[in-house]
């Protein structure tokens, strides 16, 4: 399916802000990997509602700065309610960073954003362009769903899809759509002009109180794309089957699901 940027709503944006602890927590690990330090200038591409951007702004301190861009105006609006002297967000997208001068950032990161981009090379070239080069070159950091290691939820969803005789794959249901393999991402980073890419897959275990919480999480994280290409009756059938399958994964802490994410860091020095 094609990802639409027209399905977001104020309610989805607010829900995302509330339920995005998962993205926030793995994002903090990415920021650790990037060794973001005081005084640095950082670009948060696909900043969403700005939770991670604010965290990074605290880390770079008053002599540093974090700028977020995101194509969804409602999420940018929420991000700007968190605006501080060194954090702000504006509407923009990964494909066109022309509002920023070349060589003007120490760090660019995309946290849970790359799997929403239909094409990766252009955005990574743009990230390379705005990063400082030279001996103290900048760094890029990425977390993304891994094509070779789908989230457990997507495996469950794929089973539900085929048991209901629906066409497509779990990806076509809009949970994480344009996934990439670690190998492809590594090659694309090098083609975009980055050095020494380091990639690893990290796994996370999530617990959800109920199926409705899983659906709400994927709907808000996909800015309304999840199940949006199904007829309403089919979407209801999928949700009912999902509930049965997910309940089988219930542990004392809740419905237990594993996620697997590529963490990639590379240097922009030449
Ligand atoms: C799962 S959210 C992640 C938000 C944030 N980075 C975080 O860690 O919470 C995915 C974000 O990717 C953004 N996105 C989608 N297409 C994009 C594009 N072409 N350029 C930049 N961001 C994009 C969405 O608007 C959404 O805010």
Question: What can you see in these coordinates?
Answer:
The protein is an alpha/beta fold and 270 residues long. It has a domain at 10-146 and 177-206 and 258-267: Vaccinia Virus protein VP39 (Rossmann fold). 37% of the residues lie in helices and 21% in strands. The chain has nine helices and eight strands. The chain has helices at 10-19, 21-33, 51-60, 73-80, 121-130, 152-163, 182-191, 211-221, 232-247, and strands spanning 41-45, 65-70, 87-91, 107-111, 139-145, 195-208, 250-251, 254-267. Strands 1, 2, 3, 4, 5, 6, 7 and 8 form an eight-stranded mixed sheet that branches. The longest helix has 16 residues, at 232-247. It is globular, with a radius of gyration of 18 Å. The chain starts with 9 loop residues before the first helix and ends with a strand. The mean pLDDT is 95.
């Amino acid at each position: 399916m094609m990802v639409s940027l027209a399905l977001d709503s104020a309610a989805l944006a607010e829900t995302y802000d509330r339920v995005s602890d998962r993205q926030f927590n793995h994002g903090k690990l990415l920021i650790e990997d990037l060794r973001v330090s005081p005084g640095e200038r950082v670009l948060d591409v696909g900043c969403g509602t700005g939770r991670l951007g604010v965290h990074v702004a605290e880390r770079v301190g008053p002599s540093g700065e974090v700028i977020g861009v995101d194509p969804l105006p409602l999420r940018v609006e929420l991000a700007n309610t968190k605006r501080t002297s060194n954090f702000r967000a504006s509407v923009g997208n990964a494909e066109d960073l022309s509002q920023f001068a070349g060589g003007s950032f120490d760090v660019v990161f995309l946290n849970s954003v790359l799997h929403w981009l239909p094409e990766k090379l252009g955005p990574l070239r743009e990230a390379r362009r705005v990063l400082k080069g030279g001996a103290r070159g900048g760094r890029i950091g990425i977390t993304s769903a891994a094509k070779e290691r789908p989230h457990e939820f997507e495996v469950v969803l794929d089973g539900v899809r085929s048991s209901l005789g629906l066409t497509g794959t779990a990806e076509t249901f809009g949970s994480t759509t344009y996934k990439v393999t670690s190998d492809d991402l590594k090659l694309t980073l090098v083609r975009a002009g980055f050095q020494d890419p380091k990639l690893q897959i990290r796994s996370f275990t999530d617990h959800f109180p109920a199926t409705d919480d899983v659906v709400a999480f994927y709907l808000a994280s996909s800015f309304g794309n999840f199940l949006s290409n199904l007829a309403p009756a089919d979407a209801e059938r999928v949700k009912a089957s999902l509930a049965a399958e997910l309940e089988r994964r219930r542990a004392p802490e809740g419905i237990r699901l594993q996620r697997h994410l590529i963490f990639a860091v590379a240097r922009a020095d030449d």
